[in-house]
C-alpha cells in the first residue's frame, strides 16, 4: 500500500456513458522523458498504474492475455468485472504463499462493456473496488476530496466536462508552484462508441486550455479567467498559510 | 582433506569478531582512520544575548530554509571536518561543513552538514554549545521518513505529512505540535542537542516532521511555514522560492516507482 503512495497521482471517474483516466506522469531525471502511466489493455479497457513499474508491467501483460484469449475463444469482449475478478485472484496468491511477495502496484482500471462504463481500483492487498470515482498515488487525498465534492455532477457530464473534472482533481494534488502541462499529464478515455484511447499532446493541450483560467484550490485567481469558480476551501482543514513578511521595519 | 582422529576441530565462523585470525590491532587502526574530527573556524564570535538558536538538520528542513527563510548572509562560524585526510582530499569528496549564520535581531541559525555521522553527534553538540549556552531558547528542526514512525493503533488513512514535538522540562513557550508519543524516538544530532539542552537547563524544543519523501515544495514545507508564522520571529520570506535546485530533496530520483 505504501508502494502505491510512492507512485504519482492518478484519477479515474465515470459518467453514464464514458470512463476517463487522468494521470500525472513523472520523469525520473531531466534527461529522460515522462514515463507512460496509462496502458491500453484492449479496445474497451485501459489501466493507469501507481507503484512499482515492473509489477505493473507483469499485471498489464496478464490482463492483455486474458482479454485476447477470451476474444479468441468467445468471439466477444471480456466483461470488465470478470477480468478484475481474475486479476484479484492472481494477486491474492502471492499474499498467501511464503515464497512470493505481493504485487506492489495499485491500478485504476477503466472499461466499457454491456453493463456500461466501469472504474475499478485494485490494491496490493488483492482487494478490488468498483468505484464511481477514485484517485490513487502520492498526495491523492486532495484529489479524492475534490471528487467527493463533485460526485453528483459526474453522471450527467459530457466527455469534455468529465475530463475537465479529472484535470481539476489532479491539479489539486500538485503544489502551487507546479502546473499541469502536456508533458506531465496523460488522459485516457473509453465509452459508448469510443474505443480506449490515450490522447496525444495536442489532445491534452486542448483540455488543459479549457481549465487554464480557473482558480486553483487556495491559489490566486488567474486574470484571464472567464468564470472563476468560488475559492475551494483547502482540504484537510489547514491549507498553506501565507508566510508573514520578514521585512524589518525602518522604525524598529 | 586431512582429518584428525579424536581431535576437536573448530569450524571457522563468520559470526564472531574475536577470532584469533583477526588481529585486534587492525580493528583499532581502522576506527582511528575512520574517525573524523570536527573543528570550529577560528573567527568564532559569540554574541552575549541570543533570543533564539535554531538548529536545522535533514534534507527537508534544509530545503525549507533555502526556500522560505530570509537571506542568511555570511556565515559567522564554520564547523569543518578534519582528519587524517588533508583539505584537498576533503574538498574532492565535496564534504559540506556545518555553518552558523547570524540572522536579524539576535537569532542564530545552525545548519547541520548532511555528511555528519551519528557517531559525531556528541562532538558536534560540544562544538556548538558555547552559542547554545547564551540562548534564551533553542528550536531544533529535523525530518524523518514516515516508515520510521510507529503507531499503536491502526489508522485507516494516515496523513502524508505531519509534525511531532519533544521539549525540555523548562521550555515555557507554547509548543505548536502534538507531543511525540512512545515508542517513537529521535536519534542522532537532533537528539544529542536536545539532551544537552535538557542537561544544561536551556529551554529547547525539537520539531520532527515525518514525510513520505524529501521533495521540497510548498506542500511539503507547509507545516514548517505554519510553525514559523506562529512564532514571534519574523524569519519567513514573503514569496518563497522553490525553484532552487539546491533545496534538499532526493538527488537520486527513483526509477522503481511510477
UniProtKB/TrEMBL annotation, chain B:
GO terms for biological process: proteasome core complex assembly. Pfam families: PAC1. It comes from the Eukaryota. Keywords: Chaperone, Proteasome. This is Proteasome assembly chaperone 1. The keyword Zinc does not apply. Belongs to the PSMG1 family. GO terms for molecular function: proteasome binding. Coiled coil: none annotated. GO terms for cellular component: endoplasmic reticulum; proteasome complex.
